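Retro notes, item 3 of 5
We never archived the inputs for the serine complex last cycle. Fixing that now. Sequence and ligand:
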Amino acid sequence: MTMQTLTTKALREKYLEFFKSKGHTIIASASLIPDNDPTVLFTTAGMHPLVPYLLGAKHPGGNRLTDVQKCVRTGDIDEVGDATHCTFFEMLGNWSLGDYFKRESIGYSFEFLTKVLGIPTDRLAVSVFAGDDDCARDEVSAKRWEELGIKKENIFFLPKKNNWWGPAGVTGPCGPDTEIFFITDKEKCSDDCSPACDCGRYVEIWNNVFMEFFKNADGTFSPLQQKNVDTGMGLERTVAMLNGYSSVYDIDVFKPVIDLLKEKSGKGEEKIRDMRIIADHIRTATFMLGDENGITPSNVDQGYILRRLIRRAVRFVRSLGLDYSILEEISALYIDEYAPYYPEIKGNEEKVLSELRLEIERFDKTVAQGIKEFEKLRGYIQNNRLSGKAAFRLYDTFGFPIEMTVEMANEYGIIVDTEGFEKAFKEHQEKSHAGAEQKFKGGLADHSEATSKLHTATHLLNACLKYVLNDNNIQQKGSNITAERLRFDFNFPRPLTQEELKAVEERVNMIIEKKIPVVCREMPIEEARELGAVGIFNDKYSDVVKTYTIGEYSMEMCGGPHATNTGDLGHFSIVKEQSSSAGIRRIKAILN
Ligand code: SER
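Structure as it came back at the time:
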């Protein structure tokens, strides 16, 4: 069999089909914006939404799952434009929740790569965990690979730094992994060239994590209740590899976009980096805006990242000399491309395109203002040098990107102290965005007692808002829970009055005082729908869903975890009600 040159569509299908044939339930991609997880801004891996199940909760789909998950990782945003980095990607994954372990997992991966994708065995290299004080050397995996025909010289034992995955935050499930690499035609860069080296000889295609530990806050590891397998394969990268492309931006989903940019700008490879940045950022922005928990540009958290992506794309469109409207055209291309797999972005098409346009307009105004400021500054410039501080002020106060300051300054023969700018920028960043940046690094949902109670209070709030405001169209538009408070976004056209807020509080507290058990049940999605459960009914979702019922007051589809009785919640108070974005209100509340 020869190596398959597959499209993204074909690889998605083949992957899911293969794992289905091995007894896995296909589940839908979760939202890009995690519910109830204060530690991350975006879903960064297929395992994120599955954390409760890795920790032992029963998944309605059983103990073998597979999916294609929308993921965003913005830690490497500055590298986008090279051949491999993307801020959005799709992760193919399969999970064993306390079912099979190392031998079967490796067997499945090997069979898929060699029999379905037709990769010759001698083009595969693997790494396994070398062992340390926390966990033994992984001889089981190494032996299994050898048994399947991987040559000893292509099996590498590597330390924790390379062969250990997670936890995504400070605490959470984690374990040793075995990573699978495609061996390219590049020669070894040295005698000890290995997959740990980034010379390009080894391209990582799959990561099988054997999650058997929980990392505690004190840095120690405890064995998990059950031994899990969590695997992840990057869709874009694997398709590029199978087709022999040297860049992910050559694959089918990007091609029409890059071609359009080339055609409209009349530019070619000399501007390929700019084109890739536009292609990447607009794809990510489209998915963020069109998500089932969609967000809009703002100055904090997720909205801030979205704003940064759109504005960066605008800048590169300027540098290509194109009209901004091309960004909407590109977004529309993506919406059609991905609609069959992520219908939510098609459903939100209007919102995606109009928000994109709005943000571009806002940025355009900013730029116009920045130009005015720059003209003013020019009057004071000495020795044809613009200080880093002044450039930073243009950026900080007017949102004027440094690249544009440099561009404009150059036209007048003025040199910008970019080092000074970087310095001012770093100082500022450390101060103000420390929180947001920290959250990109990943982290896992906090499943403590405090968050479980707040989660139950969120369901009550949702139900009581509908009741008090007498509006059944009210829907959850976002939720975020920390150990201290809940935050709940919902659609409503105006601020709530003091009386209304008080009535909502009173009703929530009335239900708390009734000490009602919170009942968790699994049922077919149809039944949940008929019973009037609240939640996002998604046709592509697995057949069986988990629901939480609180007496006659609330029934929601939800992954949990929750308090077991409303009586445990304490006293509920709303601390703030404000606007979140157009037509969306935000309530913050606490329990004490
Ligand atoms: N969680 C692992 C990863 O992100 C495997 O899915 O690579």
